[in-house]
Design goal:
Shape: globular
Structural class: alpha+beta
Oligomer: single chain
Helix content: 10-25%
């Protein structure tokens, strides 16, 4: 099962456009947010609060919360979402895209996948 999660995670890290692969986007949890200021990252978390639809608080796999601001209202979001965006200097995230991951996403398994990716960064950044 962990191998399947890793394959899915890696698949989401890369996006195909016009036959070319986009740049690598680090998958992080809350503890690494300040290490990626100014960079594009991918974060998966449980929605703790969705406020007015443009501001979301995500609880990451490591239990830390990240504040995410979108330019446009998200609409209906599920309990777990993936956000791609840029890390701001204050440790918040400006979200560019989001994907609903449903209401039964296994954050413990995802946390394990993140640990494996960190341990074998040379494979996942290639």
């Amino acid at each position: 099962v962990l191998v399947l999660v890793l394959v899915i995670v890696v698949g989401y890290c890369w996006k195909k456009e016009g036959g070319e692969m986009d740049a690598y986007k680090a998958r992080i949890d809350g503890r690494y947010i300040n290490d990626f200021k100014g960079e594009t990252v991918v974060v998966v978390g449980e929605v703790e609060s969705s406020g007015d639809g443009t501001n979301v608080i995500l609880k990451c796999a490591d239990g830390q919360s990240i504040s995410v601001r979108f330019d446009e209202e998200l609409g209906n979001v599920t309990r777990f979402i993936e956000v791609t965006g840029q890390v701001n200097d204050d440790g918040t995230l400006t979200g560019w895209a989001s994907t609903n991951f449903g209401d039964n996403f296994d954050m413990n398994l995802y946390s394990e996948a993140l640990k494996r990716m960190e341990k074998h960064i040379n494979i996942f950044r290639a």
